[in-house]
Amino acid sequence: MPHPTLFAGKFISFEGSEGSGKSTQISRLAQHLKDAGREVVATREPGGTALGERIRDILLHKDEGDGMSAESELLLFTAARAQLVRSVITPALARGTVVLSDRYLDSSTVYQGAARNLDPKAVAAVNAFAVGGVMPHLTVILDVPTEISLARVRARTAGQPDRIERETAAFFQKVRDGYLALAKTEPLRVIVFDGTQPADDIDQKIWTEVQKRLA
Ligand code: Z5A
Fold first, then answer.
1. Prediction pTM value
2. Distance between CA 185 and CA 113 in Å, rounded?
3. 3-state secondary structure of 186
């Protein structure tokens, strides 16, 4: 059987800092794709499966997550990813669906690697094991200065930040820098869009790029 990424399905991941506009752009792109007659599956990380949503709860919301080591954090994010790949992404690609994921393996590269300072080779090895070769055809990074993304999150969470939202501004600066560095190393797969532009403008730019890739 051919590898799932060789089927007619397309896989697009969205990355960026918290509050960079990923959910907003995923729902707009999903609508464009549906209007164009494509079947769409939208999912998120961590989460997207029953197991993944339980892991998400531990990672972000439960007291058990307090004091979590960076290594445990990496393994939990990638455990959720391994399940998502096998039970949602691969079957959807095999059906010819367009899969849109709010975060994927680049989040571990950047948050656990660049920002938590885990060995990049170890992060890459665990990521590779988790995804089993299923890579996005396109990764959209929404780039937003740290002050803006933090302000957007603060406005939304109204004083109830999750475990990762409680990190320092320096941590989020490493996240932003990590994404920009990643884009330079994989320019064919990863495209950076200015997330400070009006949502309609970003939407049009992403849709133009996606139509080229789907053609
Ligand atoms: N994490 C990790 O460490 N390692 C991993 O491997 C993975 C994840 C997979 C998941 O958080 C956390 O887990 C995340 C990384 C870590 N933590 N951080 N930081 P999450 O799923 O709860 O949240 P998120 O993925 O970081 O994103 P978000 O908070 O849901 O935001 P978003 O989807 O990027 O943005 P949005 O909801 O579309 O927009 C945010 C607000 O901005 C909203 O009020 C919008 O109306 C507004 N917005 C959107 N676009 C615009 C524009 N263009 N202009 C102005 N305002 C806008």
1. 0.96
2. 15
3. coil
Q: Is 2 exposed, middle or buried (0-12, 13-18, 19+ CB in 10 A)?
A: exposed
Q: Strands 190-194, 98-102: parallel, antiparallel or unpaired by DSSP? A: unpaired
CA pair distance 25, 138, nearest whole angstrom: 14
Q: Hey, CA dihedral for 184, 186, 188, 193, is it positive or negative?
A: negative
| N-to-C CA span, the chain | 24
> What value, to the nearest 5°, has the Cα angle with vertex 10 and ends 9 and 14?
145
pLDDT tens digit string along 155-214? 876 668 889 888 999 999 999 999 999 999 999 999 999 999 999 999 999 999 999 988
Query: How confident is the model over 89-143, as pLDDT tens digits?
Result: 999 999 999 999 999 999 999 999 999 999 999 999 999 999 999 999 999 999 9
Helix, coil or strand: residue 12: strand
Which of ligand 1's atoms lies nearest the C-alpha of 16? Answer: 34
Q: How far is the CA of 29 from the centre of ligand 1 (A)?
A: 16
pLDDT in tens, 30-62: 999 999 999 999 999 999 999 999 999 999 998
Q: How far is it, in rounded angstroms, from Cα 47 to Cα 54?
A: 8
Give the binding-site residues of ligand 1, using a 6 Å CB cut-off.
16, 18-24, 45-46, 77, 102-103, 107-108, 111-112, 152-153, 156, 164-165, 195, 198-199, 202
Q: Whose CA is nearest to atom 23 of ligand 1?
A: 18
